[in-house]
Amino acid sequence: MRPLIHPSIEDISVEGILHALSDPVRAAIYMELAVSSGASTCSDFLQIKERNIPKSTLSQHFRALREAGLIRSERQGVEMFNTTRCSEIEQRFPGLIPAILKAHAVQAAHGAKRKRAAGKAKAG
Amino acid sequence: MRPLIHPSIEDISVEGILHALSDPVRAAIYMELAVSSGASTCSDFLQIKERNIPKSTLSQHFRALREAGLIRSERQGVEMFNTTRCSEIEQRFPGLIPAILKAHAVQAAHGAKRKRAAGKAKAG
DNA sequence: TTCTATAGTTCATATGTTGCGAACTATTGG
DNA sequence: CCAATAGTTCGCAACATATGAACTATAGAA
Fold first, then answer.
1. Does the pLDDT value for residue A96 go beyond 50?
2. Which of B69, B77, B73, B80 is nearest to B21 (CA)?
3. Under an 8 A CB cutoff, do B99 and A104 touch?
4. Pick from A24, A27, A102: which is nearest to B95 by CB?
5. Nearest residue to nucleotide C10 when comparing alpha carbons to its C1'?
6. What is the mean pLDDT of the segment spanning A59-84?
7. HTH arsR-type domain spans which residues (chains A, B) (predicted)?
8. What pLDDT digit, counting tens, does each position of A15-31 carry?
9. How many domains does the structure of chain A reveal?
């Protein structure tokens, strides 16, 4: 089993970060990791955004986030603990991650608003 | 020939923006458009980042940027004029585009530094 | 050690996306 | 109408992604 790859901070690229976070599932995972104080395992995300994600797919998504330099994964016994590398990335690309997280929050808020409006329209 | 599609501002998604800008060529195009005051045609980018991009590929890249909501394209005679939709996006996702542009700038500066260091190492 | 359970990874493959040359469309000016 | 210029679309090869099946790694029990 190949060892986990964590790029060094200067090998992290903007394109890599944007690509990793341009997938809705990965963005959701990353947001949860960024918000939650502690570390989270892979399996914590088998359900995300009202969808079931197969384990193999999740594993690939975690690999993508890891190799983009967004998260750090460490084995602890039988599970894998994942944490963000937010503060490192903040050093290299100040403001980038916060801006993306904020934009996602704006979009989620706006999406909820539209959903309510659509429901009202249907009901009324 | 199908008409050009420009999503309305509320249909622009974070994922779409990140995906569009996660490609190095598109990111370079967008940066030039953002920096240049006026509008630019497609063909202004046949050479970018020391690479020749085929016209058909460029056309696809412009379409990707357009349909992600990042640029507006308008026909003027035989050419196409492209402008960014920065200010609109700034309304919907404040700070997102500036943060990405800044991160790209940081990366370009850092890349140049590493290149010089590599050159020195080879020379010395 | 061997057996079992759990958490993730890797493989094979089907499906989706991208890059680019060739052929095409749209516009302008003889 | 013809030619030139600027972009677009088509078709296909190359690359990427999602997922079930098979596998590896670790812990605990017997």
1. yes
2. B69
3. no
4. A102
5. A1
6. 97
7. 16-98
8. 999 999 999 999 999 99
9. 1
